Amino acid sequence: MEGASYQRFPEIKIREMRDDFMKFELRKTDSSMANALRRVMIAEVPTVAVDLVEIEVNSSVLNDEFIAHRLGLIPLTSERAMAMRFSRDCDACDGDGQCEYCSVEFHLRAKCIGDQTLDVTSKDLLSSDHTVTPVDFSEAPATEDATDNRGIIIVKLRKGQELKLRAIARKGIGKDHAKWSPAATVTFMYEPEILINDDLMESLSLEQKKDWVESSPTKVFDIDPNTQQVVVVDPEAYTYDDEVIKKAEAMGKSGLVEIYPKEDSFIFTVESTGAVKAPLLLLNAIEVLKQKLDAVRLPEDSVDADDFGELGAHMRGG
Amino acid sequence: MNAPDRYERFVVPEGVKKVSYERDTKIINAASFTIEREDHTIGNILRMQLHRDPNVLFAGYKLPHPLQYKILVRIHTTSQSSPTQAYNQSINDLDKELDCLKSAFEAEVARFTSDY
Question: Domain DNA-directed RNA polymerase RpoA/D/Rpb3-type spans what residues (chain A) (predicted)?
């Protein structure tokens, strides 16, 4: 008994796309899907992060656990994380979490010998696997002074101080600990639809129009210098603050403008930590959400005689 | 240290079913599904998808307690359908929607990179 399908066919349009940032429009779906994607991107797309640190020598000013915590928060390139195993269900190492299928080893050795303070950064973390390395933004053309870009500072060493350690990075998700979250921020907003009542607007003097345009805390409206008409310059700058509507009412011109959120149209911004590139983050989120849905399917054997519907329920004395 | 393991929040314990369902004793075609180790992410999309089905008279979900890592989904349908049928159909539809979204995004990435 196959029921009718009530599937939606969402549409997507990219506005901006860089490795660490993406802005796109999502249409023809509802807020539950938009929010599910946002939640999955933040908390359930897997990445790799330092999870175990063995410190051999630490004569720096920071204590061992402080350094271990800082190492954990360094984003590591995690393109491979989707295919990796979680240490807790890795057969190869009995959940030990130290084998090649579920972990990556890092080494760090630094000693300050000169009088100059030595910065120990993420670039001093040497990986055993070239696909998993600390995220490096210095190749990005946007940064002008690439010469002194030395990665993320872990600790500063004075003359004679030393740091020597071994770190194990493992796969994890943001739900477990925020260090595994690949997303810096993910937001979405409803696309606003702004309708100006032109007849009512023309009943305003130029001074009143200016006053009304100024009442919006963000620059949504402006006055065309040629025609002196109020025009919408940036509908997305509107923050649903209702200030322009209140202003119109205070001026005795209620209904001057009507603003509706389009409930099937969303504007997303995705900022990545660099662990997973922004476009891949969305693709991984879709994949993770599919896996989650697959996991909540009813197992075949539990779909019992229920297909008889009402009759089946009656037969059981329902 | 008696802190529970962090992964208890999202790993289904051994011997526990991911999804179990219980038919309502008083109303025909009504049932409650208990989904272990899931939250609003799944609960809300399932509920909204079930609302699209005209045979579903009621669909709702709740997270009973923030420290009990499970959700309850309650479905009541007309006699033309059944809670399990509506539940399976909604998962199939969501799965197809995500397939559609994935291919739409891949096509858009290809278009975007060739344009700029």
Answer: 21-299
Least confident range from A3-17, A83-97, A301-315, B84-98: namely A301-315
Residue A40 tokens read as: 């999955």
Cite the beta strand spans of A61-182 per DSSP E.
103-111, 118-121, 126-127, 153-157, 162-172
A101-134 pLDDT per residue, tens:
889 999 999 999 999 999 999 999 999 999 999 9
What is the rounded end-to-end Cα distance, in angstroms, of chain A? 21
Q: Touching check for A317 and chain B: CB below 8 Å?
A: no
Asked whether B49 and B90 are in contact (CB, 8 A), the reply is yes
Q: How far apart are CA A248 and CA A211, in angstroms?
A: 10
Q: Is A40 left (phi over 0), alpha (psi -120 to 50) or beta?
A: alpha
Average pLDDT (A246-275) is 95
Query: Structure pTM?
Result: 0.90
Interface of A with B in 123-182 (CB under 8 A): 173, 175-177
Q: Please tell me whether residue A66 adopts helix, strand or coil conformation.
A: helix
Contact B87, B72 (CB under 8 A): no
Q: Which residues of B67-102 are buried (b: 16+ CB within 10 A; e: fewer)?
A: eebbbebbbbbbeebbbbbbbbbbbbbbbebbebbb
Radius of gyration in angstroms for the set of CA atoms belonging to chain B, rounded to a whole number = 18
Token pair belonging to B74: 């309650």
Quote the DSSP letter at residue A100: T
CB pairs under 8 A between A and B: 149
Q: Are strands B70-77 and B56-62 parallel, antiparallel or unpaired?
A: antiparallel
Q: Could you report the per-residue pLDDT of A276-300, keeping only the tens digit for each?
A: 999 999 999 999 999 999 999 998 7
Strands of the sheet containing A183-196, edge to edge, are: A11-17, A21-27, A257-272, A183-196
Q: Which of B47, B105, B114 has the most A C-beta neighbours within 10 Å, making it the best mutation to test the interface with A?
A: B105
Phi, psi at B76, each rounded to 5°: -130, 125
pLDDT of the residue at B115: 80
**B48 in contact with chain A, both atoms CB, cutoff 8 A:** yes
| Cβ–Cβ under 8 Å, residues A48 and A81 | yes
